[in-house]
Fold this protein.
Amino acid sequence: ISLNKSNNNKIVLIINDNGVGIPKNVTLKQINTLGLYLVSILVKDQLKGSIRLIKNKGTKFRISFNIR
């Protein structure tokens, strides 16, 4: 887990692991878990940010939002 301020005045939260990962053919929109649904609502609706799924040597979620 890392939390940083980017050069373009955004906060970037990265959560990753090096486990088996999510299958390559699965997208973020296809994952129907309550936890990920709640995180998506928080990021998109409340923080006006974005969430990205990166599948490379495990699973990584990159969440970014503007500093208020």
User: Anything to note?
Assistant: Residues 30 and 36 are 11 Å apart (CA to CA). The mean pLDDT is 89.
